Structures are given as structure tokens and as C-alpha cells.
Amino acid sequence: MQTPRLKSLWNLRSGWLNRLGNPCRKPRLTTQFLKTCLTAHDHFPDFAHRAYPLCFCCSTTPAHSAQPCPFTSEALTGDARPPRCVTQEEKPLPLAVDLDGTLILTDMSWVTIKRVLFLRPWLVPWVLFKELAGKRTHWKMKLASKLRFEPAELVYHQEFLTWLTAEREKRDEIILCTASTRSVAEKIAEHIGLFDDVMASDAGANLAAGNKAAALVERYGERGFGYAGNSRSDLAVWPDAGEIIVVNAPQSVRKQIEKSADLIFD
Questions:
Q1: 102 and 10 inside one domain
Q2: How many CB atoms lie within 10 A of CB 182?
Q3: Is there a single domain that holds both residue 258 and residue 178?
Q4: Mean pLDDT by 10 residues, the chain (266 residues)
Q5: C or N: which end of the chain has fewer Cβ atoms within 10 Å?
Q6: Do residues 34 and 63 both lie within one domain?
Q7: Which of 159, 160, 130, 132 has the alpha carbon at shortest distance from 143?
Q8: Residue 112 domain-assigned (yes or no)
Q9: Alpha carbon of 204 to those of 35, 136, 182: distances in Å?
């Protein structure tokens, strides 16, 4: 089959100008060739017969190979543009990490109830009223303001924490994203020392399930972030994540997400 002719040698930065000065089979732009030729020669080089077509995808495949690159200048016609060829591994996505049951092997809401509410039983009716009224963040913030704890006494998922430490050098951003109150989350984040930022519940919405998914999509865009979680509420977040990491999930949750998961920690 006859090789298609090029409509525009200049637009494709190829053709006979590019082939004239290419004894080492290295693709050269037309402008580069002209600059070299005008400054170093008063005539065209005489080794045009050894030139090879320009490769647009930066492939290292030799031009004389049995399977040459399909995106050389001779393989393209008209105004066709070769697809983008990624030669380096893409940088990992920003990562959002859940706190309760993921980073730590407990729930800070339960810790707060045991250490604050059990010692102040007169607050129980008020907490129940707020819960039934759909104002969970109100009682969580009230009790969190009275909570006294040291992050070092919490039990962490050591395998996941070790992996997270290694990821710190690879990712542009790692944040702690939790339904716990901000005061609690920031204290733990400061102790760990790996997080660039903290997203947590405040006086407005409880940052869990759909609320967490919406907040992350607003910040990073759909599938523009990785998410590490463990609970049933995280099933609402993972579909919007570009990277799914499952940590310490119960079997009921793991069965629903393991086929889509990129990484699973027991």
C-alpha cells in the first residue's frame, strides 16, 4: 500500500527538512533544524538518505523496527493530531482520610459519650432531643468542648499509618476528613503530623455520608481525590472518589466495595 502523502509538512513539523539532519534517529523540530542549518552550514547536509521519520509520541521504538511507532510523520495525514502519549507515571491524587474506624480503631463520638455524657447524666435528655431534631452537630460540639483526651492514648491502625507516612512524599495533599468535631480532629491531626488540612463537622452540617461526598467534590471535583474510609456511611463517598481505599471495614461494607477498591487494609 502506498504511503499517504502529507498535506502540510510544516504543520506536522516533519518532511524533508526534518529528515535531512537526523543521523542519530532523534526526532527534531523543523525550527530546530533550520536554526542549526543556518548557523552552521551554507548548504544542506548530505546524509538525507539516513534520516528517519519524526516520532510524535516520544517513543524509543527504533524506526527500523518491525513494529514502528504508528504516530510518525509518515503515518499521519492532513490535520490529524496524534493522541497524547504519557511517558511518566501520573502523580497520585490528593487523599482524604477518614478518622473514626479508619485512622483510629475507635469512634470519637463514643469516646466523647463515655467520658463526658456518662459523667453528666443530666445532659442525656438534651442530647436525645437534639438527636431526634436532626441537630447532631449541636450535641457533638457541646460535648466535645468538655472532652479531655490525649491523642497518644488512642489506638491507631499501624499498617495503614505506615503506608500513609510513605504516601506523604508522593502526594501533593493529604487531609483528614471526618464527621468528628473540628476541635477533636485538629488535635489528632497535629499529633500525627501528616495532614495538610482538616475537614470536620461544625455548627452547620454533619460531615458524613452525602455531606462529606459533596464537600470533597466541591473541593477537588468529581473523581479528583482518593478517599480512605471504612464504614457504611463511606459507601456514599467512594462513588465520587477517583481512588478507593478501604481500611478496617466490616464484612458487610467490604463485600459491597471490594470489587471497586484500589487498596484494602484489614
A1: no
A2: 18
A3: yes
A4: 40 41 47 48 43 45 46 42 48 95 93 87 88 83 88 96 95 96 95 96 87 97 97 96 97 95 96
A5: N
A6: yes
A7: 130
A8: no
A9: 63, 10, 12
